[in-house]
Amino acid sequence: MDHLRLEISWGSLWRIVAITVLLALLFTVRETIIILSLAILISSALDPAVEKLEKWHIPRILGTIIIFLAGLIFLALLIYTIVPLSILEFRSLFTNLGGVVGQLLGSAVPDTVVNTIVPRLDNIANLLLSGSTSFVDVVSKILGGATFFLTTLVLSFYLTASRDGVGKFLRAILPSSLEDNVLALYYRSKRQVGRWMQGQIVLCMLVAVAVFFGLWFLGVKYALLLAILAGLFEIVPLVGPIFAGALSVAVALSDSSGLAISTLIFFVVMQQIEGHVLVPLVMRRAVDVHPVVVIAALLGGYQLAGIPGILLAVPAAVVFQEVV
């Protein structure tokens, strides 16, 4: 009987060991890699705006300062004005969660089932509300706190302030054998990622504003919170807008069936306007990433790195698409 002999050369064995050590090292410094990746992403997204200011004879360093200050002021105003109201609506929604679900299920589900579900939802709501501090702690740990934010901000500022800052950084860390291919991939992906980010941000904001005014006009409760969720869900193709609309209709249904029908009609019209007007207008120059790829990237990014992983997911998918 013949025996199969498997021989592994010392060279192959050393390669396996080296790859294993490299992967372990990358896992150890994964937070640093995430910070650098976010800084490169921010710099790549802001670079076109800084270049436009340069064409207006504004020095690059001054243009970078203007862009970053404008972004920080906008973020501060957003946190100061919208976040407190959103938290109040969030607390109110979860405080009344059991009653809302009870009204929705009351006519279609036996009382015994409703009486079982509603108290449990009340318990979940109380747990979420009482554990708000721990939730903030968890988010703080995911983001690495103020150090994570400031480090990312400083690195992205330096990369943006220097002309071709990301390219210079990649040349400094890459071996010469990989330099040309990686830089060519970066410059191709940079244009696509920048266009996608700019278009997606504009689209999310337009949808959030439109949903807020629409729900506010109809008299749907928690209009601000639902509008913010609609804007955030816009990043998830196909499924996100449907989920945002279903959630708004469910909240409206807790008041009356007529309000729910009006809300449903509003979202159907909104979807038609978005699909035939907003998306072609805003995203006409953006890269066409398959919806399944986006959803898979978002799920994988969240599992690997939490919220920062979500931010890096679609750009990583764009790079992957460029490679493939």
TrEMBL record:
Its main location: membrane. It holds the Pfam family AI-2E_transport. GO terms for biological process: transmembrane transport. InterPro entries: AI-2E-like. It is a multi-pass membrane protein. Keywords: Cell membrane, Membrane, Transmembrane, Transmembrane helix, Transport. One of its GO terms (cellular component) is plasma membrane. It is found in: Cell membrane. The chain crosses the membrane at residues 12-27, 62-83, 142-161, 196-218, 224-244, 256-273, 293-320. Signal peptide: none annotated. It comes from the Bacteria. Belongs to the autoinducer-2 exporter (AI-2E) (TC 2.A.86) family. This is AI-2E family transporter. It comes from Candidatus Colwellbacteria bacterium CG_4_9_14_0_2_um_filter_50_12.
